[in-house]
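Blackboard transcription, Thursday session:
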Amino acid sequence: MKYFGLIWHNIWRKKIRTSLTILSILVAFLLFALLSALGYAFKYGEESADAERLIVIDKVSLINLLPIAYQNQIASIAGVHSATHATWFGGYYQDPKNQFGQFPVDPHEYFAMYPEFKMPEEQFDAWVKNRTGAVVGKDIADAFGWQVGDRIPIQSTIWTAKSGEKTWEFDIEGIFANEEPRGNTSMLLFHYDYFDEARAFGQGLVGWYIVRVDAGADPVQVQNAIDAEFENSRNQTESAPEAQFAAAFAKQYGNIALIVSLVLGAVFFTLLLVSGNTMSQSVRERISELAVLKTLGFSDRAVLGIVLSESVLIMLMGGLLGVGIGVIAVRGVAASAGAFLPGFHFSPTAMAMSLLLMVGAGVVAGIFPALNAMRLSIIDALARA
Amino acid sequence: MRALRQIFAVTLLNLKNLPQRLGSSVVAVVGVAAVVLVFAAVLSMARGFERTMVTAGAEDTAIIMRSGATSEMSSGFGGDQVLVIASAPGLLKDGDTPVLSAELFVIVDVKKKSTNTDANVPFRGVQASAFDVRRDVRITQGRMFETGKNEILVGRAAQSEFQGLDVGSTIRFGKTDWTIVGAFEAGGSVSESELWTDVRVLQSAYRRGNSFQTVRVKLESPESLDILESSLKDDPRIDPDVMSEREFYSSQSEQVTQFIKLVGYPLTILMSVGAIFGALNSMYSSISVRGKEIATLRALGFGPIPVLVSTIVESTLLALAGGIVGGALAFVVFNGFQVSTLNFASFSQVVFNFAVTPDLLLEGLRVAVIIGVVGGLFPAIRAARLPVAQALREL
Amino acid sequence: MAEVLARLEGVSRTYQKGKEKVEVLHNLDLQIPTGDFVAIMGPSGSGKTTLLNLLGGLDRPTSGTIHVGGAELTAMSNSQLSHWRSTNIGFIFQFYNLLPVLTAQKNVELPLLLTSFSSKERAERAAIALDIVGLADRARHYPRELSGGQEQRVAIARAIVSDPSLLLCDEPTGDLDRETADEILKLMQILNREHGKTIVMVTHDAQAAQYANRTLHCDKGTLEAREAA
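(Written on the board underneath:)
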């Protein structure tokens, strides 16, 4: 720590060069923050999954509907704590671009299945009483400026009402939040009973089941038992833990993580060259000074440490600035588009990763110049000066 | 003319001592190369996706869906409604019969080879006339499916992207076994991501009776679209949306390409800013190395402008070199690389190739030049303003 | 006779210059008593600087042994030598070799970073050293803001701040005008006489050598003593 002054002054030997290097590092870590937030958004479903929840879908395809009668059958399987269902309504608000999730559900069952969703009790009760009532997540309510008491039209691209209408109107009776920090609440929930009665076709069919496994039961066994139950039924099922389901779905988009890593790879490769070059220029310029330090009695290891510290400190300055701006930028994007890109956020894992990267990149960029400084022969260096 | 000669002479001198400051020059070149590489690679996904979707759409083919449907899957017509469409004006006729294909579009889970996880693969029921509506479809392997049989023709792209789709093999969806009897090409379009079978077979497998989802028709000419649309809109028996196939596919591709561009352009801009810092660094160190030389030239009577311009020229040449390296690398590594993604608009997989197109490469070079000019500007001004006497004394 | 501070016995130093072997010092015996002020003169390439480097533990002899202040340098490892230098030797160079990024004060404090002194103690000691060389009022100046003579005074302050017994000076006045050189040399005399520093100074300036107690002439790897004029 007492070398700090020396290190600090050495860093600013060439102000322009150091500033430009720090700015390059800043940009790299800003990109890191933004891209890891993007990568996290695609992994988000997996991260927020509950280990005791299973998803049961039709074996042929997620889009095929399952009979409502399956619910009781599933509920009676050993190891199943409870089961409920949801269906993809496929609607949008005002403009086809405003797509988000709407699901006809059983209010009591659904909220019991997802205890992380929280809302005032009186709002929940009001919803239960109103057949055409709906509750919306906070994110989507904020995005569209909805409030309790609003009557909103949702146009379904799939479901026509018996009246021939594709626009369904709902009274917003409540707004729910997700207890999990940054949990997804970009959805609208309404009564399945009303939906089933009003839809023009598909009566008695639901999209998928959500199953809670008994605490202590083996989820894999329960999963196999469910699929075995419907082996000979018209609709065979495929069950999977929520996380696995979410992960498989995310993979349908392609290997986003790989793309993010490749881009970051290119960015950091360049970054290492930039800072490595800065460090080696800096060492080259002060060979005689380093020799003087050694003459004064600074050990080889101290000289190595000083140069490495300079490199790491430069990386930390640029990196922390970049991540700081990145976090603000990620929040900004999440605030304006979070309802449509849930999970776009800079996770603690990414934060830890970025710190590791800063130190790691600092060491890698500084190690060769530092070794050169360490191996410097005092006599040669002084003779050259 | 004299100024030009001076600029040329000074630039040449600059470039000659480039090896002396190889480190920072290489760093600047690599920085720009990385920008152009990432730019071309990311945007080539948007280009490739767009190309796959748009080549599928013909101007003189109309697609008719139930009004309000945003995708083929959410559309639906009864058999009688298809007959209404068949008798509408504006359709191209082969003898007396209109060139028309009523189709069913569902999704089946097939594992992706790359991830070994289920993917939403489009499974289309077509009539034989589908081959007349889509003129570029060609069976390249095996044979056509027979009507009434559980036989599948598989798109070339789907075959290479998903598991178990070799000709001759059987695949099980639910309780039904299907035989893959052939593979087809469709000019690199989105159709190649699909599995095709006889629409009647698919109707019964999915208990759809005599219903269809979309109707594609060949038009007499692209202009006939309006005639067809107004005629169908006026018909009380049917409530359709009519659009050209090209329009349909470009709307289907919008979401994905917009997303890639929304990520790709800011990414490029940010990376360019980083590369400008690299270029600035390189040029500042170039000037500090060449300080004495610049001062000598000025003392000999060279003007400040040639010094200024030559510095910008050097920086631009370095950036351009980086741009060429990055672009070439993008082309060699990524062009034609096949991937597939879930197109949320159709909720199904689209297989496409990265397309590093010439216009994309040119755009990349333009980015490189901008980086070079901006990165050279301030150092150039400093070089031109260098006090001659002081520089000579100091060095 | 005062006790011996530095003792060289049978010291030879050969360098490999390309394919040729150059013997810079040949079987040299030398004793420097505590409190001595020795000037070493001789043509370039005669081994003056090599001798100084050997005394400071910057270089090792090809053969022979070197003792300084009870320590056998030839038996110490590089890191032991580093540590030993920091407390026992002060170096003064022809071109001062101050760190341009540090103020005079911080330059002088530099050797103290290797000790366990607190930052307050370091500052105090550096201030005393600067006072001794007469530059207390220049503590906050950077080297580029000082004249050559002032820079060399800062360098001397840096050399004495950790209170070493031996000062090794390599052409300390080689880059200074006569008048400034004399001031520096007087300062060194004071350090020698009043502060008891033993000084070995390499120079090719006969006038500078007159400030020393005795002058040794170095030629072709051997030393020859001559009476101080």
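Lecturer's comment: DSSP finds seven helices and ten strands in chain C.
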